[in-house]
Amino acid sequence: MTTLTVREVSGTPLRPEPAAPRETRLRALDGLRLVAALMVAAYHYGGRGGDVTAAWGSSPKSQFPTLHQYFSYGCLGVQVFFVISGFVICMSGWGRPLKSFFASRASRLLPAYWAAVVLVTAVFALPMVAYRTVSPSDALVNMTMLQQPLGVDRVLGVCWTLWAEVRFYALFALCVVLPGASRRRVILFCAGWTLAAAITQAAHQPLLDVVLMPEYAPFFIGGVGLYLVHRDRRDVYAWGIVGVSFLIGQHYAVRGLWNATDPGAFAHRTTLGIVAVVAFGFLAVAAIALGWLHWANWRWLTVAGALTYPFYLVHEHLGWVVIHALHIGLGLPSAATFALSVAAMLLLAWLLNRYVEKPLTPKLRSALAKAR
User: By three-state DSSP, how is residue 9 classified?
Assistant: First the structure.
């Protein structure tokens, strides 16, 4: 039987708030993380032009005449990541003091990130690698994870998403974790951010755009709302947050990625296709929140979740090097090159997790949690 608490404001009883559910490892969420990362990898390897063209020796269009169209939707894996992040950050920040929340997030992000920056910088500096490396000064700035707002060249192409994540963490920490998480406070946070982001879009103020991220806010907010659903599937306010977030989120996704009228586009995404992928992200996390995927409880999914972040960090730029070596150097077919490149990046991710994250993450977390 679920324990309920009743809070009162000005003598008026609020809706009973369920006590926090006893959290177990949501292994299906780990699996969804890997699916999102593989979507992004498919986009970077075969769903766009740019630097990867040099790795293949020709446009990925010619390498994947049919699949390149589907691969082009893989960039929406980022939006799926953001929905997952909203769910996970709300879950991990609930009932946790600010210092513990900061220590948890910093220790989770930084060790693999630092290793990836050093590794990509070193590989790109090799004379046999044709890709341009950043300057030593810019590489050092990249270690702070603040290269994006500082206008510094990026070592990792995907790090722009980490800048969005960091801003979300800061907003959630200040508005929810610092005063103490509760259902009412989280609902107000979601509603306030949604409204503020809409006003920001109308105001055309660059500073507000940076802080409130109107194009990404619906995905983070939708994930937070889905965690409220996980706590209480009958919560009408939570479902309202999720619904509004999806409706706004698909708008921004379509506005940013629909390119059917661009004759020079690498691939022409349809409105229906974009909305369908965004819906997949929301529906998949909703299925996990509702417990419909509890049967997906295989231990290998935990390993998949652990590999996702380091894989995401290294797969793009180092993937170019592997693709060139396999396809141009060894003459392997496109499909084999694609599969082996993904496998190589997963192996590298396992090495980073085993020899960087596992030893350093708990040490960094402990040091930050103990520091005054």
Answer: strand
Tell me the torsion sign for CA atoms 310, 311, 312, 316.
positive
* Other CB atoms within 10 Å distance of the CB of residue 35: 16
Q: In angstroms, how far is CA 236 from the centroid of its own chain? A: 27
Phi/psi of residue 319, nearest 5 degrees: -60, -35
Average pLDDT of the segment spanning 299-311:
95
Pairwise CA distance, residues 91 & 225, whole Å: 11
Q: Please give the angle made by the CA atoms of 112, 73 and 288, to the nearest 5 degrees.
A: 65
Name beta bridge partners: 5: 17
Q: What share of the chain is helix, strand, coil (3-state, %, to 5)?
A: 70, 0, 25
Rounded CA gap, 43 and 131, in Å? 19
User: Concatenated DSSP letters for 282-322?
Assistant: HHHHHHHHTTTTTT---HHHHHHHHHHHHHHHHHHHHHHHH
Separation of alpha carbons 14 and 130, rounded Å: 63
CA distance 138 to 123: 16
pTM comes to: 0.91
- Max Cα separation, the chain? 75
Q: Could you give the CA distance from residue 28 to residue 105 in angstroms, rounded to a whole number?
A: 21
Per-residue confidence band for 19, with pLDDT thresholds at 50, 70 and 90: low
198 vs 212: CA distance, rounded Å: 9
The count of residues in the chain is: 372
Confidence of residue 18 (pLDDT cuts 50, 70, 90): low
The first and second tokens of residue 22, run together, are 């006893």
